[in-house]
């Protein structure tokens, strides 16, 4: 945590003024060219490897750069993924959507592992309902 706090203080002294100037330049007329979905993995730094700057693109980060299907948002549920699409494509007329994955993604590895375990469980035994305790059911 100390490293992060030192970085914030260093930013305020060295970089803040130039960043504020960049923010002011795009404040009234941002022209993002893409909506960029990527993983929240700390190894991913999208503005570095895309060589983009303030105002160039909307960046949405989550575990595994997952974009849920719109059918999952039929009620009052909200999520930043579809909101970014609407803001980018409808409001700002952005024509480019980028979904950027990476190697050794822990979120994707976990989903793959869960699917593999589920498939092998189905082959071995009948499924039980979520929330039931097989030991407790056997005791009754």
TrEMBL record:
InterPro entries: Carbonic_anhydrase (IPR001765), Carbonic_anhydrase_sf (IPR036874). It catalyses: hydrogencarbonate + H(+) = CO2 + H2O. This is Carbonic anhydrase. Gene3D superfamilies: Carbonic anhydrase. Belongs to the beta-class carbonic anhydrase family. The keyword Membrane does not apply. Reversible hydration of carbon dioxide. The keyword Metal-binding applies. Its cofactor is Zn(2+). Keywords: Lyase, Metal-binding, Zinc. PANTHER family: CARBONIC ANHYDRASE (PTHR11002). It is an enzyme of class 4 (lyase). Binds 1 zinc ion per subunit.
